[in-house]
Specification:
about 190 residues; alpha/beta; Pyruvate-ferredoxin Oxidoreductase, domain 3; about 25% strand
């Protein structure tokens, strides 16, 4: 791996910037790799466009922005429509199956999972959908280890919500592995 580019996209309030920060923390602090994280969001605090970009490398990172995305998470249709164009040939597109109905076609692999629904129904809290998505991205990309990512999650969330977030991360990881079983994606 010389450079791996990830983008977490959706709308403000979905916690995607936090997910990106935790991914970068996993790579840099827990795995000793080079990592940078950047973010942007619309002027609205909630509901506006939001993205978090993470670049992971074994070498120094000379440009901190995603140019050709290896893995893209799209939590809304608007985000998918706006950002899938940067996804490189052979890249991974993870979409929320309940919120992204028009899945673009291209030379990339697509995994569709009910991320928000999983957080709401299986975990009882929609607020951890970002951690469910993070678990899925870790499973689908293999760019960082499950163990280290789980440690990064646990060190990044309030103690009162640690077990909920651990369960959310592992649920996302396991569901992504189930969704790709037999497809040769994992």
């Amino acid at each position: 791996m010389s450079r791996y580019e990830l983008r977490f996209t959706g709308s403000g309030g979905q916690g995607l910037i936090t997910a990106g920060i935790i991914m970068a923390k996993t790579a840099s602090i827990f795995e000793g790799k080079q990592a940078v994280q950047s973010q942007s969001y619309g002027p609205e605090a909630r509901g506006g466009a939001s993205k978090s970009e993470v670049i992971i490398s074994d070498e120094p990172i000379d440009y901190p922005k995603v140019t050709r995305c290896d893995a893209l998470l799209a939590m809304t249709q608007q985000a998918c429509d706006k950002y899938f164009h940067d996804l490189k040939q052979g890249g991974m597109l993870l979409v929320d199956s309940e919120l992204v109905k028009n899945i673009p076609e291209g030379g990339f692999r697509t995994v569709s999972m009910p991320i928000m629904q999983t957080a709401k129904l299986d975990l009882g809290r929609e607020i951890v959908a970002n951690i469910v998505a993070l678990g899925a991205m870790v499973a689908l990309t293999g760019i960082v280890s499950r163990k280290n990512a789980e440690q990064a999650v646990m060190s990044s969330v309030p103690v009162a919500f640690a077990e909920l977030n651990r369960k959310a991360f592992n649920t996302g990881f396991d569901r992504a592995m189930e969704a790709t079983a037999g497809l040769g994606l994992s």
